[in-house]
Amino acid sequence: MARILIADGEDGFVRQAAATLHLQGHEVIRCRSLDEAARTIAKTVPQLILADLRLDGGGGLELLDQIRRQGIRCGVVVTTELGSIESAVEAIQRGAVNYLRKPIDKGDLIGVVEEALSKSGSEGRATTSPATRKGDDLCTLTGIVGSSRAMEELLEMVEKVADTESSVLITGETGVGKELIGRAIHRLSGRSEHVFCAINSAAFPETLLESELFGHRRGAFTGATNNKKGLFEFAHEGTVFLDEVAEMPLSMQVKLLRFLQTGEVRPVGDEATRYVDVRLVAATNKNLERAVATETFREDLYYRLAVIPIHVPPLRDRPEDVRALSTHFLQRFSDRAGKGVHSISNDAMELLAGYAWPGNVRQLENSIERGVVLCQTDEIRVEDLPVRLREESIVREGETIHSLQVMERSHILNTLEQVNWNRKRAAGLLQISTTTLWRRLKEFGIETDGSRRPAAATAMQR
Question: Please, what are the domains in the chain?
Answer without folding.
Answer: 3-121 (3.40.50.2300), 132-311 (3.40.50.300), 317-402 (1.10.8.60), 404-460 (1.10.10.60)
